[in-house]
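Lecture notes, unit on protein representations.

Consider one protein chain, 267 amino acids long.
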Amino acid sequence: MSQEIKDIVKETYTRVVNEGPGKGCAPSSCCSPIQDVIKDGWSISESYSSVEGYEEEADYALGCGLPTQHAKIKEGDTVLDLGSGAGNDVFIARRIVGEKGHVIGVDMTEAMIEKANENKEKLGISNIDFILGEIEDLPIEDNTVDVVVSNCVMNLVPSKQIAYKETHRVLKSNGHFNISDVVLKGELPKGIKDAAEMYAGCISGALEKEDYLKVIKEAGFKNITITKEREIEVPDNVFLQYVTPAELQEFKASENAIISLGVYADK
């Protein structure tokens, strides 16, 4: 099942690249229900327009937060972006670390790595590397990274436990991470949880908030802090493609919710 999930995600985000930046999930992709409402002005992403180092060509509107905002990145740091896509957060981190720093982006989708390298060449930046690889088996040496960031990607990884253990492994002894992700409060309706489209759309692969924080703690992290939390309002017409009107009303009447969460932690 985990390989099936990875294949779905790769296919989806390859089509995203083909569609172009700022479009979110491509209309022909398996997460087209989400794209339909992005066109109408809805998205789970946050605006990067005022962030220093922002490169519009690298922004495919696929995130759910601004992970560099609370990452405490310093000049000269080595920064790793998990699920770096076309390089959006990598280029922002590069602006902070300066010429003496180093930023690495890891992504498992070949098309995203190719697009990120195209963007890198256009910008003429040398101290950035984009590497093809998976978060559950990072192609990074132990204890070599100062800061890890990630934007709405861990929810796509089949084993969050392995992903966070890998994050812990590559960080230096005094390293830390700041990650934006989607988590749940309570339960999703079964039709949403079972939909491959909603997995690739960063919804159905999310853990319940307390379970998510427990995974981080069990990976060995300390000083776990929530830096940002906001509820994501999914339009009814997205939900109704997977659930009945009665199930939708039951979900909306409950205290259950989909949440964009920012989490900081030290190794």
